[in-house]
Each structure stands twice: as structure tokens, then as C-alpha cells.
Amino acid sequence: NAGVMQNPRHLVRRRGQEARLRCSPMKGHSHVYWYRQLPEEGLKFMVYLQKENIIDESGMPKERFSAEFPKEGPSILRIQQVVRGDSAAYFCASSPDRRNGYTFGSGTRLTVV
Amino acid sequence: DQQVKQNSPSLSVQEGRISILNCDYTNSMFDYFLWYKKYPAEGPTFLISISSIKDKNEDGRFTVFLNKSAKHLSLHIVPSQPGDSAVYFCAASRNSGNTPLVFGKGTRLSVIA
Q1: Mean pLDDT of the region A40-57
Q2: What span, in angstroms and rounded, lies between the C-alpha atoms of B5 and A41?
Q3: Quick one: pLDDT at residue A100?
Q4: Could you give phi then psi for residue A100, rounded to 5 degrees?
Q5: CA A73, CA A51: separation in Å to the nearest integer?
Q6: Most-buried pick from A3, B35, B46, B111 (CB within 10 A)?
Q7: Distance (Å, rounded) from C-alpha A108 to C-alpha B94?
Q8: Taking CB atoms and an 8 Å cutoff, what residues of chain A touch B98?
Q9: What DSSP string describes A20-37?
Q10: Is B43 at the interface with chain A, CB within 8 A?
């Protein structure tokens, strides 16, 4: 029973490029959450999705960031025109229902150069 | 505005002794609290939680205490083991866990053999 799978583990992008981060939830989990951890900070909520629906995106920056969780395939966090301040660890978590007993993936470390 | 505060960035404890990690919160609407443990290059792992209707929850070596009037919770680990060395995050939620988690910045625990 694989856990939450995130890929890639490390991603390096030049300023202005696009970053795509993928998250495959645990089997049977239909709720996905994305969190971001800046250096020396705690995890900050970004977005909560269920299959094909964004439920809460109150933590998403207004521009350049988008997320989806299609009917088939992984959830994708997309960052367009990356800037140095986007460098962070991005964690995905999944749960079988809306309660917070969720499981985190190992994260994607994005470095913008 | 930091709604969940972990004021000690680090803590060192001798193996076999008790580790006490503290967490304060400012939002009186929080009613569900969790502790996560994180090793380097891994995602956070759920440790233990407590609902605001309780003041204590115990799971093996881990006990969480909640003082609602002081808006304070603590995690006790006894006896501490070298494998407990990690960063510990306190997190809080509203509506019995039906809202995204708000994390503190974490406390790095070092258990010295």
C-alpha cells in the first residue's frame, strides 16, 4: 500500500519557467491538500481539492499558481513564471474524508535559480 | 500573523528523560490540535491529536495536554529515545478538523545518548 507519492523530489527551474509538481494520493483517498514550507517556516496551507473540484484555495497566491485534481491521474500544482521566492518545499497530503487525519508525501523541493 | 506559535526553535534532552514541547495558539476558534514529527527530506508524520473537549490524550510514550483557558498545548515524550530526534510541528484546525491545518514553525528536538 504505497503512501502519498510526490514527484519529482527535486526540481530546479530558471526564473520565468514553469514548474509542475505532481501528487498521487494514497489508494482510496479522494481528498488532496497542498502545503508549502519556506525555509525556517512552518507548513502553510495552499489549496484543498477533491476529484475534479477545488474546495478551498484560500492559501493560494492570486497569480501564477494553479492546482487541479482530475478524475484520472495525479493532482498537479502548477507555478507559472517562477521567481526566486517560490523556492520552497511543497508537500501534498491526502485523506479518505474531510477530517484532518491525513498522510503527507515526502515533498518536492523546488529551487529557482 | 502567527496563529500557532512554537517559541522554542530547538530542545536538547538526555536519552531516557522527558521531552516537553510547547505550543501556543491565538485563535479561540481552534478546536482540534495535532502534533507531527518530521525527519529531514521526508514529509511530516502524524503523531497524536486532541480535541478541545479533552484536556489529555495519551498514546504510548506520547501524551498531549491541552489547556484551553491558556490557549496552550504541550507534547510530552517519555522516555525520550535517540530516534525521537526530529522537528516537531504543532498544528490546529477549526470546526472539529474540517478546516485546513495551521502549523507552527516547529521545534527541533535532539535526544542525546
Answers
A1: 92
A2: 11
A3: 55
A4: -90, 25
A5: 10
A6: B35
A7: 27
A8: 98-99
A9: EEEEEPPTT--EEEEEEE
A10: yes
The three cell numbers locating residue A58: 484560500
Q: Are A100 and A94 in contact, with CB atoms under 8 Å apart?
A: no
Number of residues written out for chain A: 113
Quick one: pLDDT at residue A57?
95
Task: Flag if B97 and A100 touch (Cβ within 8 Å).
Answer: yes
The SS3 of residue B82 is helix
Residue type, A106: S
A5 touches A103 (CB < 8 A): no
The two beta strands, A88-95 and A103-104, are antiparallel
Evaluate whether A112 touches A14 at the Cβ level (below 8 Å): yes
Relative to beta strand A75-79, strand A65-68 is: antiparallel
